[in-house]
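Bench notes, afternoon.
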Amino acid sequence: DTPRMPAQHKVNACVPASLCYNNLSSNGRHFAFAHATEAALCAADGSGKPTLLKDRANSAVTHVRFIKLAGGVELLVVLSGRSAIFFSADGARELHTLHMAEGRPAASFFRGVATVKAGGSSYLYVGSSGSGDLHCCAADPATSKLCNLALATALENVCTGPISDMDGSVEGILAIAAGTDKPDGSSEIILAEIGTDGAPLATMRLTAEAPELCTSLRIRGRTMLAAYSTGRVRVFDVDAKRCVAVVAAHARWINALEVHPGRGIFACASEDGYVSVWDLEPGRRVKHRAHLAAANHVLTGVAFVGNSVAATAYDVSSLLTWSLGSAE
């Protein structure tokens, strides 16, 4: 028998989502996404009105993501054309700010944020468009207070093109999806081993066989998942630093990919109006679970809350959600 697809539900977010990659994040209690020059923070159950965190320079917000430090402290990071602002997870307190360097082109903006644990410390990396500049902050292990690190020289040659996404591991690995200096629009994934001072010790570059843009990536343990403009998802063995599986997941661009925080499943959101959900089985085998339709929508973000998956759609003021049922 054909499995019955989960029913779609809507959570009123009051404001529409912007058109940018990976435009939804959740910490299990809240959703957060970019809306024009603001970050919208709303309760996962749809209660109350959203909190809107505005960029003071009135610059478009380009990426919003919850991250967790080594000690378990959660932060909400809001990136824009001019700044990277670190808030408490509830958005109530602004804790730290990075500013775009002087002399950068007006079209440059921050995009991509990740946290890496190395030597007992948490390092936070923020990427940017343009030439792919990287910025680094360190979190004090005792107080979680952030401070900027002067690692410009160590980081300046890591990327040669604009960064589209980043992720980090608790095992000292920073993964970066970035464009190249080739004219064919191709991209590469950079795996950087991070030292105890936050600087990269070694880097490895992984390039797709055909020109395509990596829009999203997530690294969990020794496995990395990467989504592409061709609708493909690639599964990488981090230790071997090679691709071990390719999934034809969508007919059009994948704009977001996310891994469930407690289950072996991941989801993608695509321009084709579908959220695809997949089981990541032992041996890095991928098994199709569902394609969830959001007709006539350009999906821009995907996130998990409990046993549900949620997505944002461009210029739509609701979050679309589907229940996936309990773990099998």
